[in-house]
Design goal:
- With 132 residues, this protein is α/β, with parallel strands linked by helices.
- Helix content is 20%, strand content 12%.
- The model has no long low-confidence stretch (mean pLDDT 85).
- It contains 2 helices and 4 strands, in the order E-E-E-E-H-H.
Length: 132
């Protein structure tokens, strides 16, 4: 399955989909190009979106989307969910940092992680939805 979302950086979708293979995020285009509006982002740090945070939080897919292969163009299939969240997060973080650098980012990983990466595992609530 493929989930395609369009919305602002602050949308905060937390998918819980066992069969999900890919997440595609089309960020809101009503603002000037590449103008990230993520929560509390500094004006001088809005040139690139926060892949893994903008619109969909990558941390929410841990254990909730075990078959996910690609997230916003970043290959993550080889990172197993059969490890602690902290280990999983560390491996995922490296992939998204590399993506950030390929997009033109210039921060060192520690500075990048402080403002552009999740600091803790997000809390997700799963509700069954039954359609009649």
């Amino acid at each position: 399955e493929k989930l395609v979302l369009t919305g602002p950086c602050t949308f905060n979708v937390f998918p819980v989909m066992e069969q999900l293979k890919e997440v595609v995020v089309n960020l809101e285009t009503s603002l000037p190009a590449n103008n990230c509006t993520y929560w509390k982002s500094r004006i001088d740090d809005r040139g690139l979106h926060r892949a893994g945070l903008c619109c969909v939080n990558i941390g929410a897919v841990y254990e909730n989307c075990p078959n996910l292969e690609r997230f916003m163009g970043v290959e993550i299939a080889m990172v197993s969910h059969k490890q602690t969240f902290n280990k999983w997060n560390g491996r995922i973080k490296k992939r998204f940092y590399d993506y950030y650098l390929r997009q033109g980012g210039s921060k060192e990983i520690k500075a990048w992680a402080k403002t552009r990466w999740l600091s803790r595992r997000p809390v997700t609530f799963c509700h069954d939805v039954v359609l009649h």
